[in-house]
Amino acid sequence: MVKLLQVTLLCAFLIQSVSASKIVSVGGSITETVVALGHGDQLIGVDLSSIYPKDVTSKLPNVGYWLSLPQEGILSLKPDIAILSAQSKPKKIVEDLPKYGIETYIIDDTPSLDSAKSKIRAVAKVLDESQKAEDIISRIDKNVAKVIESIKSKEKPKVLFVFSRGEGTLMAAGLDTKPGVMIQLAGGENVVPSSQYTKISSESILKMNPDVIITSNHAGESGLNENIVASTNAGINKQIYSMDMLLISGFTVRIDEALQKLSCMFHKNQFSYCK
């Protein structure tokens, strides 16, 4: 009885300790997962890629951009816990966080469906929310299965994802980028032959002649030449869409929503889950 009581008290202490902790999260999908697991009220800071949910992230101090974190960013907020994407840089700053008494968790963040689910479980382990994680993953599996079933007999449209980096610089997502992998998972064929992001011209877009063009709505203007685009299959068939950058590239807890939206774009809302 004493041993059982000790274990119970220890578990209660651990849960209380996590629930009282001040958390900084780095990486849009990490932050989104923390909020989805019910711990948004413990966040005291996020990075610049953490833009969803806006009602939470917009009120928090930012610690810099996840791919170029400043030395003082996280430290200035004095968190108890830091949860970071494994892609966060510079590595030296990330690796030094425990020296300042910050409980630090590095979460794998690669572009695959399995990685997205592992990420949810890993963040849930930190927050002691395993059941919530399994509920989210069960929903993802159910909805992704609908997408797979819906697209299995469909022809793959040629898809281009682009976003503007300002000053007339248009970037396209290659095969191994997160949007590139999402396009493939949703039943599309990426028209960009390179593996990573690459600069692309209006003339190249015309030559590639995609069936579907998707732009990021995060940075405002897409940078597309409307006259050129109008001559592509996407322009002729009115299959030019805008999508949230984090949704198409984050591999977040909303990955099922992202894949459903993409498959609906690719096939003109033919499926039962299309709105």
Task: Lay out the secondary structure.
Elements: H1 2-19, E1 23-26, H2 28-36, E2 43-46, H3 54-57, H4 71-75, E3 81-85, H5 91-96, E4 103-107, H6 113-127, H7 130-151, E5 158-164, E6 170-172, H8 178-185, E7 189-190, E8 198-199, H9 202-208, E9 212-216, H10 226-229, H11 233-236, E10 240-243, H12 245-249, H13 255-266
Parallel strand pairs: 1-2, 1-3, 3-4, 5-7, 5-9, 9-10
Antiparallel strand pairs: 5-6, 6-8
Unreliable spans are 1-16
CATH topology of the largest domain: Rossmann fold
Q: Let me know the number of strands.
A: 10
Q: Report the biggest beta sheet as strand number plus sense, adding barrel if it closes.
A: 6 strands, mixed
Terminal CA distance reads 56 Å
Count of individual helical segments: 13
Instruction: Decide which structural class fits the backbone.
Output: alpha/beta
The H/E string reads HEHEHHEHEHHEEHEEHEHHEHH
The CATH H-level superfamily of the largest domain is Nitrogenase molybdenum iron protein domain
Helix percentage: 40-55%
Short description:
This protein has 275 residues and is of the alpha/beta class. The protein has 13 helices and ten strands. Strands 5, 6, 7, 8, 9 and 10 form a six-stranded mixed sheet that branches. Strands 2-1-3-4 form a four-stranded parallel sheet, with helices on one face.
